[in-house]
Amino acid sequence: MKEGYPVNLPEHLDPSHSFQGLILILQNYWAKYGCAILQPYDMEMGAGTFHPATTLRALGLKPWKAAYVQPSRRPSDGRYGENPNRLQHYYQFQVLLKPSPPDLQKLYLGSLQAIGLNTDLHDIRFVEDDWESPTLGAWGLGWECWCDGMEISQFTYFQQVCGIECSPVSGELTYGLERIAMYLQGVDSIYDLNFNGQTGRNRISYGDIFRQAEQEYSRFNFEFADTDLLYRHFIDAERECAAILAAGEPKEPGGLHLCVLPAYDQCIKASHVFNLLQARGVISATERQRYILRVRNLARQCGRAFLQTEAGGTYNAESAR
Amino acid sequence: MPDLLLELFSEEIPARIQRKAAGDLKNLVTKKLVDAGLIYEAAREYWTPCRLTLDIRGLTTKSGEIQKERKGPSINAPKAAIDGFLHAAKLDDISKAEIATDPKKGDYYIIRTICHGRKAQEIIADVLPDIIYNFPWPKSMRWGVTSAKPGALRWIRPLHSILCLFSTNTESEIIDFEIGDIRSSNVTYGHRFMSSFKPIAVHRFSDYAIKLEKAKVILDANRRKEIILTDARNLSFAQGLNLVEDEDLAEEVAGLVEWPVVLMGEFEERFLVIPPEIIRLTIRTNQKCFVTRKPNEKNNLSNHFILVSNIEAKDGGKEVAAGNGKIVRARIADALYFWRTDQMPLPDLNRLSASAERFKLDLKKPLDQRMARLDHLHVTFHTKLGTQGARVTRIAALAAKIAPLVSINAKLVRRAAVLAKADLQTEVVTEFPELQGIMGHKYALLQGESKNVSQAIEDHYKPQGPTDAVPHEPISIIVALADKIDTLVGFWLINERPTSSKDPYALRRAALGVIRLALAQEWNIHLMPLLQEAVQLLICHLVEHNLAAYEQRLLSDNTSELNRVQDISNAVSLQKRKYEKELIAKANLVLQDLLCFFHDRLKIYLREEGTPYDAINAVLTPQTDNFQQIVRRIEALIIFINTDNGKKLLGCAKRAANILDVETRKKTVIAEMVKPTQFLRKEEIVLYNAIIKAEKKIAPILAEGDFSAALTSLASLREPVDLFFEKIQINDKDITIRANRLALLARVRALMIQVADFSKLAG
Fold first, then answer.
1. How far is the CA of B1 from the CAs of B28, B46, B208, in angstroms?
2. Which of B276, B625, B635, B756 is deepest in the core (most CB within 10 A)?
3. Distance CA B241, CA B444 (A)
C-alpha cells in the first residue's frame, strides 16, 4: 500500500495496475471531502462539463459538491484503434465544487498523492490554460496540470457558464483517467491498460473492452454516419429544446420554470450531433461557426431558465432584490 | 532611510505575463507614492510563478506639504452650480472659497487646501488597495465565496497572501491593510513541493530573498533563466550535442519554475524522418522543451531533448525524464501521423471535382486535393473579401498578369499560385499554423512539383518584415507580389486601412513587402496597372457581397412595396449596375491613396537604407509607380549632383527657382510663352537655343529611362544659364521684355523638373 490511500484497498484495486482501482480511489477521496458521487450521465457528450451536474449546477447561488466519471465522446479523435494515445471514447473524472474552496490546489494535489503520484519523484506543474467552451458559452481561468510534462488534468475556475456570470465561482477539476492510468501502470498504449487489476487469465485489459468499439465507431464517425439524418437530428433537437423551454415557462412573473433539464438534454444531443457532422467533414468553417452559435443559444436559454428553478437557487426571497 | 517590501502571493500566474505584471506593479506603486509626496532612491521588481515582488529602497518617512487646488465655477454661475461645487468640496459656505482670475474665463471660485505631510506608512496603506483592486491584468478572475459579492477582488488567479513590510536597518513593521479577506502580513511561502510550504516570517528584502532561496525559490527570473540556459548548454555538451538556443522558450520556462532543474530526455531515432521544424515545434510548443543537434549538423536534430523540472527529484530526475520522454514520444507520434496523413488521399474525392476543375487541379495529388477542399469548404478569408478559394483565384490571375511582364513562364506561376494556400488544409498546419508555407513547400516536392514552384509556396509569404530575406526565385517573387497586392487593394477597397495605432492585417508590412520585392530584381514594373487589375478582380466579388446584403434587406422589409419576386430581382439587377459604377468610380481615388501609402513606406525604407531625404523628394512625384526606376533615378541624381557640373547646375536651378518664386509672390507678369522676337541680347538667344536642343534630346532619353544621360544633357544648360544670369538684367524697364525673360527661366525650370525637382535638393 502506498502512503496517502484513504482506505485499505485490496491489491487488485491498486491504481498502479488497476484502472477501476484508480476510479475508486478518486471517488473515495472526493466522497470523503463531501462530494455527492454521481454516476455518468446517460447521454453522449464531448466532455464531463456537459453533465447537468456541472453545467447547470455551476449556475445560481446554491452551494454544490459533486464528483463523477463521465464517458466523453470526441468523434474526430477516432483513430480506428491504431493510435496508442487517442480515442474517440474515453473517461473523464469530474469534480465540481461551488463555491471554489480556498485550498482547491492543495485538495487536488492531495488526490494525486492518493492515487500514488508521489510529488517527491514527479514534477507537477500548473501551466496556464484559459478554458473556453464556445458551444456552452462558458469560460474560466485555470491550468492544465502537468505531471512530468504530461497533461493529466484540467483545473478551472468557472467565470461564465451558459453566457451567465458565475456567482459564486465554481472550481472544476477534470482528470484524464486513461492518461493518468497509463502513467501509473507504466504502459505506452491505452489498450495495454489493466482494467480490472487481475493477473493471468483473469486480467481484462482496456483493449479487450474497447478496441473493437474504437474501430467500429471510427468507421461510423468518419465513414458511415448518415449526414442527412444527422442534419435532421440537429434541427429536431434544436426545435425540441426551444419547445420544451417554452412549454415550461413560469406561469406568473417570478414563478418557477417547470421544464429545464429535459430541454438541456436536447442541447447535449445537438452538440453531439454537431461533433459527428464535423467528424464527417461536411461542415465548412463558416458553417461551423453558425452551428456553434446555435448550440450556444440553446445552452444560454437553458441556463437562463435554470436560474428560475429550485436548484438554480436564485428562486428565493433574497434573490427578489 | 526605510525600505518597502511588497509581495503578492497567488496561485500560478501565466508565464508570459509575469514580467509585464511585475513591471506594472512597480510603475503603479512608485507613481502613486511619488504623487502622494514621497521620494525613493531605487525600486526593483521580481517575479516567480506564484508571486509578484517589489523592493523599494530609500523611501522618505514622511511626505512634504502639498498644496491642492480645486477649481470651481465662475462667480457668476447659477446657484445650483455653486451649491454643487460646495457640496463636492464639503464646504458649507462659498465665502470659504477664494476667487481667482482667468483672462479668458473671468473670475471663478477656487479652494486651496494645504495637505500636511503624512507618514509614509499611512500613504502606502492608502494607495496599495486601490492599485491591487484595479490592477491592469489582461484577463482576470473571481474565486471562492466572495466571488458572489459585487465588487469582489479580481486577480489573475486566486490571490492568497500579501506581504507588506516597512523596514529600517533595525526595525521592521507590517503595513496593515485588508483586501477582501486577505490581511497584509510579514509572511511568505516557499516552494510548493520542495519546502514545507509553511508560512515564513521575514523582516526586509535581504532576509526575504535568502529565506526564499533556502525554501527553494530563486526570486530573480533572470537568474533562473541563466541557470536554465547554462545548464542546458552544459548538459548537451556533456552528451556531445549542441543546444538549439531559444531565448523566448527560456524566458517562458523561467516563468514556469521556481527552482529550475535541467534534465535530458530522448525519443526513438526513427522519428527523425519527420521534418525538424515539426519536431522542434511539437517539443517546444506542447512540451516547453529544448531540442538539440549533433555538432556539424545545420538542420537535422538529435533525438535528445532538454527539459526543465521544477523539483530536484529524490531519484535524481529519472522518473521525470522518463515521463517527459514518454509524452514527447506520444506527441511526435502524433506529428508523424499528421505528416503521413497529409501525404495520403482525402476521402470522398468526388465532391471535390468542381473545385478541382476550377483550379485545374490534379486530384491524384495530395496537395491538389487539399486545395480543392479549401475551395470546396468555402473557408472564409474575410467576410467582406470572400473565401480563400476566391482569393486564390484572384492571386493566380494577378500573378499570371505579372509573369509576362518579366518574361517568366505564366503556367508555372499559375501552378505555384494555385497551390500556395493548399497547406492551410493540412493536418500539420492546422496543428501548427506557423508552419504555413513551409509545409506546402515540402508536400509539393514530395508530389513531384518542380523545385521553383515548391519554393514559391513557402516564399510567397515573404518578406515578413524589414529584416526578413526577400526571395530570389522569380516565381516566388511574382506570387508574393500578387498575394500582397490582392491583400492591400482588397482592404483598401473595404476601407480597412491601418491607423497610427492599429494594423491588424499587417498592411504596412505587406506594402513594404511589395516595395522590397519590386526592388529585388532588375524588373521594370509599373505598379498602377497591377493595382487596377486587382481592383477588377475584386470588384466582382465586392458587388456580390453588397448585393447579397441588399437583397436580404429587400426580402426582410415587409413595408416595402417590392414584394413580388420579379420586382426584387429587377431591383437587384439595377442595384448591381449601380454598385459596379460606384465601385469603379471610387477605385481611382482609393488607388491614388494606396499609392500614396506606398510612397510613405518607400520613403521610410529608403531613408533607413541611408538615402538622403531630399534626393527622394526631388525624384518622387505623386504618379510614381515604378520603384525600381525611382531608386535608379535617386542614385543617378546623387552621383550627378556630386560632380562639378552637377553642383553648378544645382546652383543655377535653385537660382532660377528662387527668382521665379519671388516674382510670382510679387505677382510680376510672366509671359506664358517665350517669344524669340523679343530677345535683345545674345545670351538670351544662346540660352533659348540650348533649351530647345536639350528638350529635343531629353524627351527620348527619358522615355528610354536613361536617367543618367538625361542629367548629363541637362548639364549642357549650365553655361548658357550662368551667362544669362551674369550678363542680363532680368528686371528690364520694359514689362514685356521682363515677362519674356522670366518665361525663359520658367522654361528652364520646367525642363529640369521633367528629370528632377532640383529645388527640393539641399545645398
1. 21, 22, 18
2. B756
3. 32
Beta bridge partners, A212, equal none
User: Which residues from A are below 8 Å from B193, CB to CB?
Assistant: 119-120, 124
Contact check, Cβ <8 Å, A148/B330 = no
Secondary structure of B426-449 in HEC code, one letter for each residue:
CHHHHHCHHHCCHHHHHHHHHCCC
CA distance B690 to B652: 14
B118, B63 contact by CB (below 8 A): yes
Q: Which pLDDT does position A284 carry in this prediction?
A: 66
Nearest to A100 by CA among A158, A31, A50, A34: A158
DSSP letters for B124-155: HHHHHHHHHHT---SS-B--TGGGGSTT---B
CATH number of B631-760: 1.10.730
* Closest alpha carbon within chain B to A282: B377
Q: Which residue in chain A is spatially nearest to B50 when comparing CA positions?
A: A126
Q: Where in chain B is the domain with CATH 1.10.730?
A: 631-760
Instruction: Please state, in angstroms and rounded to a whole number, the distance separating the CA atoms of residues B727 and B79.
Output: 80
Q: How far apart are CA A90 and CA A48, in angstroms?
A: 11
State the Cα–Cα distance between residues A77 and A81, nearest whole angstrom: 10
CB-based contact (8 Å) between A65 and chain B? no
Angle (CA) A129-A132-A136 rounded to 5° is 155
Q: Where are the alpha helices (DSSP H) in B221-314?
A: 221-238, 247-254, 276-281, 287
Q: What are phi and psi of A120, to 5 degrees?
A: -80, -20
Q: Please, are residues B541 and B390 in contact by the beta-carbon 8 Å criterion?
A: yes
Task: Give the span between the Cα atoms of B344 and B365, in whole angstroms.
Answer: 9
pLDDT in tens, B64-103: 877 778 888 888 888 888 888 888 877 778 877 888 888 8
The answer to whether A128 contacts B148, with C-beta atoms less than 8 Å apart, is no
In sign, the C-alpha dihedral spanning B139, B145, B148, B150 is negative
The C-alpha atoms of residue A8 and residue A14 are separated, in whole angstroms, by 10
Q: Which of residues 356-385 of B touch A (CB under 8 A)?
A: 377-380
Q: Which residues of B touch A120 (CB under 8 A)?
A: 193, 311, 313-314
Q: Cα distance from A245 to chain B (closest Cα, Å)?
A: 27
Pick the CATH number of B3-62+119-214 from 3.30.70, 3.30.50, 3.40.462, 3.40.120: 3.30.70
In a mutational test of the A interface, the residue from B198, B377, B430 whose CB has the highest number of chain A CBs within 10 Å is B377
Q: CB neighbours (10 Å) of residue A174?
A: 24
pLDDT in tens, B625-656: 999 989 988 998 999 888 888 888 888 888 88
Q: Count the Cβ atoms, other than its own, within 10 Å of residue B500.
A: 5
CATH 3.30.70 in chain B, residues?
3-62+119-214
Pull the grid cell for residue B73. Answer: 465655477
Q: Which of chain B's residues have a Cβ under 8 Å away from the Cβ of A85? A: 330, 333-334
β-strand pairing of A36-38 with A64-73:
parallel
Strands B386-387, A171-176: pairing is unpaired
Point out the residue among B11, B12, B143 whose CB comes nearest to the CB of A169: B143
Instruction: Return the H-helix or E-strand segment holding B3.
Output: strand B3-10
A264–chain B nearest CA distance, Å: 25
The reply to whether residue A130 touches residue B139, judged by beta carbons under 8 angstroms, is: yes
Task: Establish whether this prediction's ipTM goes over 0.90.
Answer: yes
Please tell me the distance in Å from B378's CA to the nearest CA on chain A.
6
Q: What is the pLDDT of residues B293-325, one digit of tens each?
A: 999 888 899 999 999 999 999 999 999 999 999
- Give pTM, 2 decimals: 0.76
